[in-house]
Amino acid sequence: MSASLPEFPWDTLAAAKATAAAHPDGIVDLSVGTPVDPVAPLIREALAAASSAPGYPATAGTARLRESAVAALTRRFGVTGLSEAAVLPVIGTKELIAWLPTLLGLGAADVVVVPELAYPTYDVGARLAGTQIVRADSLTQLGPQSPALIYLNSPSNPTGRVLGVDHLRKVVGWARERGVLVASDECYLGLAWDAQPFSVLHPSVCDGDHTGLLAVHSLSKTSSLAGYRAGFVAGDADVVTELLAVRKHAGMIVPTPVQAAMVAALDDDEHEQVQRERYALRRAVLLPALRAAGFSVDHSEAGLYLWASRAQDCRETVGWLADRGILVAPGEFYGPAGARHVRVALTATDERINAAAARLS
Ligand SMILES: Cc1ncc(COP(=O)(O)O)c(C=O)c1O
């Protein structure tokens, strides 16, 4: 099976990583979006308080968790009309994305549409299920074909691009007419800087009708819980019920202490705002430093990445930065259209971000 999957992209960065690590003041690793800030005390306390968990948790999650997820989407993102039965916890959203086409029973006759520049796991999930894969950002690129599943990701990893309400509405309307399922990966929805992103479940996008729509929400970035493996999927109640029915058999269950921690994270907006502020400050340091060093920075109006270019092949840019002790991800990891960009993550300590800015100047 692994032979049908691409080479694990980060494995190809070993040489650049060794170069960057040789910098006398150490590497600044901006190549992955892994959070570095401490988990908020109220979340850790909730995890610890739930640590005596001898019995199996329910795959559907506790009623309390589903309530908290609905309340958080309503409060933070203006989602309306979501019922608790239409929410399902997942073991981090990478897990859900990697298995979604399989869980839906898709196969060789089906087409999965992923953005031209995209988080690699959309492609991996389609490959695991053996579906056809089409990279497209516009509906006109799809012509008359009717895919089974179409991914949206706004704000985008890697580009930080935010899709406007009109764009989202158009995709939802088009998909509805054809019975296509839309999976909107909203991992970075809470991290907006220069543009306002919308959930696919927001009434201005879907008119309050969640039929054929899934919103995928990770707690990894906004609550710095990547190590807990915590996310959920919400939207079309029938699709969520079907996913639950399969996942119950497959043992895809979020541990009880993590479910309790998720409740604490979803009920509290303050720690999220503190985290957002940290990233805003890091962005305010790194963005001008990249520009001053001659990079152009495209999109990047939201999310945790700067999509930067020196108008040369991305591997050359990776090398140029590695010579300065800075490791970034080549744009080609995310699709052929990224061949002349690099993705620079904001997920490093203030000290390391300041070091990167100093090395660029
Ligand atoms: C676009 C996108 N979706 C999903 C994920 C997966 O997040 P997790 O599995 O931690 O929930 C990531 C992680 O980087 C991402 O960038």
From TrEMBL:
Aminotransferase class I/classII large domain ranges (all copies): 27-360
EC number: 2.6.1.-
SUPFAM superfamilies according to UniProt: PLP-dependent transferases
Superkingdom field: Bacteria
Pfam families the UniProt entry points to: Aminotran_1_2 (PF00155)
InterPro entries registered for this protein in UniProt: Aminotransferase_I/II_large, LL-DAP_aminotransferase, NHTrfase_class1_PyrdxlP-BS, OxyQ, PyrdxlP-dep_Trfase, PyrdxlP-dep_Trfase_major, PyrdxlP-dep_Trfase_small
GO molecular function terms noted in the UniProt entry: pyridoxal phosphate binding; transaminase activity
Names of required cofactors: pyridoxal 5'-phosphate
Keyword Transferase: yes
Alphabetical keyword list: Aminotransferase, Transferase
The protein's enzyme class: transferase
Family to which this protein belongs: Belongs to the class-I pyridoxal-phosphate-dependent aminotransferase family.
Name the record gives this protein: Aminotransferase
